[in-house]
Amino acid sequence: MENPVIGFGLAYGNQLIYCEAMMKDNYYDVHFDGNWVASIAHNDDWDWMQASGVILPGETIAEIGLRIESHYQ
User: Fold this and answer.
1) Is 69:21 a contact under the CB 8 Å cutoff?
2) Is the pLDDT reported for residue 36 higher than 60?
3) How far apart are CA 32 and CA 40, in angstroms?
4) CA–CA separation, 7 vs 10, rounded Å?
5) Partners of 29 in beta bridges
6) DSSP H or E segment with residue 10
7) The pTM is what?
8) Which residue, 5, 39, 44, 64, shows the most beta carbons closer than 10 Å to its own?
């Protein structure tokens, strides 16, 4: 079975990039313009946090998490 992928434009570093979030078992792999950059997941308080990868600003992690959540609402 394929993992669902959510794609959207994201302002990052004064550029508009194509961001994809690919669902995994307990996290999402995040790709910028086709390249893996990080994994994000919920913490115990259900806030989005970065689990691995290139260190992203907190507001970028929050924006990606918001886009994921709004996709399922």
Assistant:
1) no
2) yes
3) 13
4) 9
5) 22, 39
6) strand 5-12
7) 0.91
8) 64
| Mean pLDDT, rounded, for 29-53 | 96
Instruction: Specify the DSSP class assigned to residue 45.
Output: T
pLDDT for residue 17? 97
State both tokens at 41.
Answer: 């997941």
What are the structure tokens assigned to 44, written together? 């115990």
* Residues paired with residue 52 on neighbouring β-strands, in sequence order: 39
Task: Specify the amino acid at residue 38.
Answer: A
DSSP 63: H
CA 18, CA 9: separation in Å to the nearest integer?
5
Rg (alpha carbons) of the chain, rounded to whole number: 11
| End-to-end CA separation in angstroms for the chain | 22
Residue 13 or 8, more confident: 8
Would you say the C-alpha torsion 27, 70, 1, 33 has a positive or negative sign?
A: negative
